[in-house]
């Protein structure tokens, strides 16, 4: 199925389910008319998805402004078109003590993937989201040299930047993906 083209399918399923939801003939007929007259074209669905995404983005920004402390987790990967992608996760603590973890951004690194490129992309992202940088307590990175280098890597660049506070820097050498792969290899040996 192509993205955002399943509106007619959804309408059909809802209309079929309406017989169980509304046993009374009058209510069912009114409901089915509303569903049939609802526009669910790909363009409409795209607009509605964008509205929902904007709402989620706004709520995340509100929560981040109110956070007590936060940490970021960075993982560099390459997609199927050979474009380097930087996955940025943020874990933060709110005033009420609740902890949330969210995907902050997926940043395509269209140039080289040096520590400086990653650092500049991430700093611009933090500034765009108006994250209170002074509340950063930890950074976890993958094993890519552009992340782990003490001088030219992402962590080294941040530690030298006066805008960044002192933070704990962690190097994650075992990603969930590699754990799953190892588990799969051992279970499927003959």
Which structural class do the helices and strands define?
A: alpha/beta
Uncertain stretches of 5 or more adjacent residues: none
How many domains would you count in the coordinates?
2
Q: Mean of the pLDDT scores? A: 77
Number of helical segments with 4 or more residues: 7
Cα gyration radius (Å): 23 Å
How far from one another are the termini? 37 Å
**Approximately how much helix is present in the residues?**
40-55%
Biggest sheet layout = 5 strands, mixed
Strand order of the largest sheet: 3-2-1-4-5
CATH class of the largest domain: Alpha Beta
The CATH architecture of the largest domain is 2-Layer Sandwich
CATH topology of the largest domain, by name, is Nucleotidyltransferase, domain 5
Beta-strand portion reads: 15-25%
Q: Give the SSE string.
A: HHHEEEHEHHEH
Shape field? elongated
Quaternary structure = single chain
Give the total of beta strands: 5
Q: How would you describe the overall organization of this protein?
A:
The chain has 190 residues and is an alpha/beta fold. It folds into 2 domains: 7-57; 67-181, 2-Layer Sandwich (Nucleotidyltransferase, domain 5). It contains 7 helices and 5 strands. It has helices spanning 7-21, 25-37, 42-65, 115-128, 145-148, 154-160, 176-187, and strands at 69-78, 84-93, 99-109, 136-141, 168-171. Strand 2 and strand 3 (99-109) form a beta hairpin. Helix 1 (7-21) runs antiparallel to helix 2 (25-37). The radius of gyration is 23 Å and the shape is elongated. The mean pLDDT is 77.
Map the helices and strands.
Blueprint (H helix, E strand, L loop, with lengths): L6 H15 L3 H13 L4 H24 L3 E10 L5 E10 L5 E11 L5 H14 L7 E6 L3 H4 L5 H7 L7 E4 L4 H12 L3
Parallel strand pairs: 1-4, 4-5
Antiparallel strand pairs: 1-2, 2-3
């Amino acid at each position: 199925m192509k993205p955002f083209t399943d509106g007619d399918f959804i309408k059909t399923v809802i209309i079929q389910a309406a017989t169980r939801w509304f046993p009374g003939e009058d209510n069912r007929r009114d409901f089915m008319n509303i569903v049939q007259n609802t526009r669910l074209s790909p363009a409409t669905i795209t607009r509605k998805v964008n509205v929902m995404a904007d709402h989620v983005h706004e709520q995340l920004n509100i929560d981040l402004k109110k956070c007590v402390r936060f940490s970021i987790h960075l993982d560099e990967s390459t997609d199927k078109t050979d474009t380097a992608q930087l996955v940025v996760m943020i874990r933060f603590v709110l005033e009420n003590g609740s902890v949330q973890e969210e995907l902050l951004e997926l940043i395509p690194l269209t140039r080289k993937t040096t520590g400086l490129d990653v650092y500049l992309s991430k700093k611009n992202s933090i500034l765009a989201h108006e994250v209170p940088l002074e509340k950063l307590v930890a950074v976890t990175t993958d094993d890519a040299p552009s992340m782990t280098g003490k001088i030219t890597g992402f962590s080294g660049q941040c530690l030298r930047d006066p805008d960044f506070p002192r933070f704990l820097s962690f190097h994650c050498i075992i990603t969930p993906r590699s754990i799953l792969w190892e588990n799969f290899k051992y279970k499927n040996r003959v």
